[in-house]
Structures are given as C-alpha cells and as structure tokens.
C-alpha cells in the first residue's frame, strides 16, 4: 500500500508541556486507521495537526500526492443550530467553492444515503445526536476528500445510532476514502479499522495492522487489582504475569487493541508495548485470573 501522508518526528507543546512526543507514522492510500489512547493522550491534537488546524512545535508532514491534498475534518461536537440540514449543507458547500448544480445533486444523494431525506427541511436544533452526527459527516464529504479525519465519530450515541454510523463509515471505506479517526469503541476497531495506533502520554506505543499474526507484550499498571478486569475483555490474552506490582500481558496482536482499550478504560496506564516471539511464552507458566 502506498503512503498518502507521512508524519515524521512530530512533537507539540502547549504552555511548555509536551502533549505529543516524536510521533512518526504514515497513512496509506485507502487505509482506515483508528487512533486510541486514554483521555488527554494527545489524539485530538494529532488529528488537528494532520488537518493543518494547528502547527506542530517540531517535526514534518509530507504528502505524497501530486496535487494539493483535500482533507476534511469531522469535529467531535456539532452545535445544535437552527438551520435545516439542506440550508446548512448548501452554505457549507458554497464556502468550499462547490458549484450550485453539483451541490444540489450531491446533497440529494447524501440525504438518501444517510437516511435523512424526510428530515432535510427540519430545523437541526430538534435533531437527535445521531442525526446531527450524520450531518457533521455529510458536510465533510460534500466534495470527495482524499483524507477524512474524524474525532470520536460514535461518541455519545446509543447502540442503534452507533451501528447506523458504522454502516455509513463502512460504505465510505468501500468508496476508497482514506480515514483516520479517534475512538473508544471496540466496534470501530473490530469492524472498520485496518490499523490501530495507540498513543500513551503523547507517544505512539502500538502501531498494529489488524489481522496480521504477531504477538506483543503489554506492560501496564493498574490502580486496583487485576482481578477487576474481565478476562473476556482481554480476549486473545495468552498469559498474564505480575511483576513488582505491574502486569505483563502476552497477547496476539490482533487482540491487543481490545486489551489496551480495556486497560485504559479501567484507569490503567500502559508502560510499554513490545513485539514478542510466540515461543517466548507459550511453553511457560502463569495466567492470573
Ligand atoms: N489549545 C490547547 N491549549 C493548551 N492545552 C491543550 C490544548 N489542546 C489540548 N491541550 C491539552 O493537551 C492534552 C491532550 O489533549 P487532546 O485533546 O489531544 O487529548 P485526547 O487524547 O484527544 O483526549 P480525549 O480522549 O479526552 O479527547 C490535554 O492535556 C489537553 O488539556
């Protein structure tokens, strides 16, 4: 897969506090990347740097496209404005310099695809969170972006709306839109992402291609006993050891994102994620349960 954009040694300080540290990664053409990490680990900051909304303190971003890259951003929050989606999308399209005839056709097509045709002339201050999130994504794909950047696209939505949005994002993936998104939901990791990148205190601790057979050791700390974690949530874990009050979880890479989410959602902190040879532990002992 060819790289579309490459970030090299990106760091960002806010008020002399390092929020991102030496982040190097690339995004391939047509790839979908999920960025995970605890609250405050720097995910949104990284997305905003990729979109050009803020500048890194150091490091470089290279585009490999031979034209100017069209990057669209879907922010986490979408305000409840009094416009109808039709009015809003028309004005967003005009701001983007899109032709009126193209825009009318495209809005009609998107309304059908997103199931909002009946609501197109209703005021958005009466919309549910799921409906608002659909309009939020529609504004970003009015003109086909090269890269779609989404900050927590399923956050605050009920299970049915999450499934609905997942289906739409899968449809965009089928249309070969390259995506990078932040998330706390395992359905996006399991059913959308090609690759999971995990940030811990502003550093990349895991850069993992989904479905590739390899193994990692996650070294982590918990503020409470590990028995409070459900082993089902740590699915794919092969061995868990306790070493000097910290834990080492041996897990197949395919399941490591789920294990990392479980640890982070349990207020744990990840010290390191290192690649491992399966043979390194398969013959040996303990599993704490
Ligand atoms: N403009 C800013 N000025 C100062 N500090 C900032 C600014 N933007 C972000 N930060 C700080 O940078 C850190 C990382 O924030 P960021 O929003 O990138 O984290 P995050 O991983 O997206 O968190 P969450 O999952 O809660 O959205 C936080 O401590 C935040 O307070």
UniProtKB/TrEMBL annotation:
One Pfam family it belongs to: ABC_tran
Keywords for the protein's UniProt record, in alphabetical order: ATP-binding, Nucleotide-binding, Transport
InterPro entries: AAA+_ATPase, ABC_transporter-like_ATP-bd, ABC_Transporter_VariousFunc, P-loop_NTPase
Boundaries of every ABC transporter domain copy: 5-226
One GO MF term: ATP hydrolysis activity
Protein name: ABC transporter domain-containing protein
Organism: Paenibacillus glacialis
